[in-house]
Amino acid sequence: MRRLYHFPLSPFCRKIRIVMAEKKLQFELVEEPAWERRPAFLALNPAGEVPVLIEPDGEALADSQAIAEYLEELEPEPPLLGRHPRERAEIRRLVNWFDRKFCTEVTDNLVGEKVMGRLVHKTGPDSRAIRAGHANIGVHLDYIGFLVERRNWLAGDRLSIADITAAAHLSCVDYLGDIPWDDYEEAKVWYARIKSRPSLRPLLADLVPGMPPAKVYADLDF
Q1: Do the domain assignments include residue 177?
Q2: Which residues contact residue 75 at a Cβ distance below 8 angstroms, ignoring those fewer than 6 apart?
Q3: Which run of H or of E encompasses 38?
């Protein structure tokens, strides 16, 4: 069976967990505190980052988007990367938007400070980063609303890795209760759709010791 080295509140790990669940691929989760830089883990991925997927033959694959596209080629149904070049280009653009821009402006400032700062650096969050994360998130929720007013899903007619990537990041922030959903109805409706999918249910059961999730985190009628 495949093994996935992960951390529960890593959006990059969550992306792969959702992709594998959507494709109905069986795998075992192995929680990895990557910041400890264990030699055995570094042997799997010298970058020292999760996720890392171990195939049944022992081959290790790293980097969330590389893994996602590998799984798409290996198991093309259901298609999550699009069927046509322009569709794939738009999906990849939005994946990059959330994995880079959203992550830098929101995820790192909120999840990074509140969770990783505590676990890794044993320090309290930087209030300036928290304020920046809260200030930035509205722009992204507005953009999600803009997209879903014009499309069935973020990148087009079908659920894609773009939706999965966005949901992976938002779910981590939502764990902390830091998303003002009531102010962004279109984004809320889209997130409710993807949150209710069976592929996300295991994520809604995740717990970080000493940090319980927000009350609405696992609520499908939030």
Answers
A1: yes
A2: 23, 25
A3: none
Cα angle 122, 125, 127; round to 5: 155
Q: Is residue 221 part of a domain?
A: no
Shared domain check, 109 and 187: yes
pLDDT digits (tens, 9 = 90+) for 95-143: 999 999 999 999 999 999 999 878 877 778 999 999 999 999 999 999 9
> Is the bond leading into 125 cis (omega within 30 degrees of zero)?
no
Token pair of 87, please?
Answer: 């569709």
Q: Average model confidence (pLDDT) for the chain?
A: 96
Please provide the distance, in angstroms rounded to a whole number, between the alpha carbons at the two ends of the chain. 35
d(CA 35, CA 42) in angstroms, rounded, equals: 11
Q: Both tokens of residue 169?
A: 């990041």
Tokens of 83: 């069927």
Q: What is the pTM (predicted TM-score) of this model?
A: 0.97
Rounded to an integer, what is the distance from CA 128 to the centroid of its chain?
24
Query: Per-residue pLDDT tens for 132-184?
Result: 999 999 999 999 999 999 999 999 999 999 999 999 999 999 999 999 999 99
Which residue range(s) make up the domain with 32? 2-74
Task: Give the DSSP H or E segment for 25.
Answer: none
Look at residue 137 and tell me if it is in a domain: yes
Residue for token digits 């990849």? Answer: 92
pLDDT at 5 over 90: yes
**Could you tell me the strand order of the sheet in which 60-62 lies?**
27-31, 2-6, 52-54, 60-62
